[in-house]
């Protein structure tokens, strides 16, 4: 059910009635990347829904020094 107009499918006055274009998917979680929303891209051209997914894709972690 739509959160705005509380009907399914949306009534014609609902701002949700036109679906934004889907321009890609996140390489990690498969989230659809909408035309009206920012996405994250790495230097290899992979696209992600967020920087968190880009970090996960590349296996980047914060670590403490082993000899600290
Ligand atoms: Zn609606
Ligand atoms: Zn993602």
Concise overview:
With 68 residues, the chain is of the alpha+beta class. It has one helix spanning 51-58; strands at residues 22-25, 32-34, 40-41, 47-48. Helix content is 12%, strand content 16%.
Please give a handful of descriptors for the protein shown:
68 residues; alpha+beta; two-stranded antiparallel sheet; two-stranded antiparallel ribbon; 1 helix; 4 strands; 12% helix; elongated; binds zinc ion
Number of helices: 1
Q: What is the residue-mean pLDDT, rounded to a whole number?
A: 90
How much of the sequence lies in strands comes to 15-25%
| Alpha carbon gyration radius | 18 Å
For the record, give the distance between the C-alpha atoms at the N and C termini, rounded to a whole number: 53 Å
**Structural class per helix/strand content?**
alpha+beta
Largest sheet: 2 strands, antiparallel
Oligomer: single chain
What ligand molecules are bound, each kind once? zinc ion
> How would the global form be characterised?
elongated
State the helicity in percent bands: 10-25%
Strand order of the largest sheet: 1-2
Note poorly predicted spans: none
Order of helices and strands: EEEEH
Number of strands: 4
Explain this structure to me?
This protein has 68 residues and is of the alpha+beta class. The chain has a domain of 37 residues. Helix content is 12%, strand content 16%. It has one helix and four strands; from the N terminus they run ββββα. A two-stranded antiparallel ribbon has the order 1-2. It is elongated. The model has no long low-confidence stretch (mean pLDDT 90). It binds zinc ion (ZN) (2 copies).
């Amino acid at each position: 059910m739509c959160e705005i107009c509380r009907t399914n499918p949306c009534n014609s006055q609902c701002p949700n009635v036109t679906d934004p274009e889907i321009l890609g998917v996140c390489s990690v979680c498969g989230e659809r990347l909408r035309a009206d929303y920012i996405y994250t891209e790495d230097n290899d051209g992979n696209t992600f829904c967020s920087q968190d997914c880009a970090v996960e894709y590349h296996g980047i972690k914060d670590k403490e020094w082993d000899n600290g």
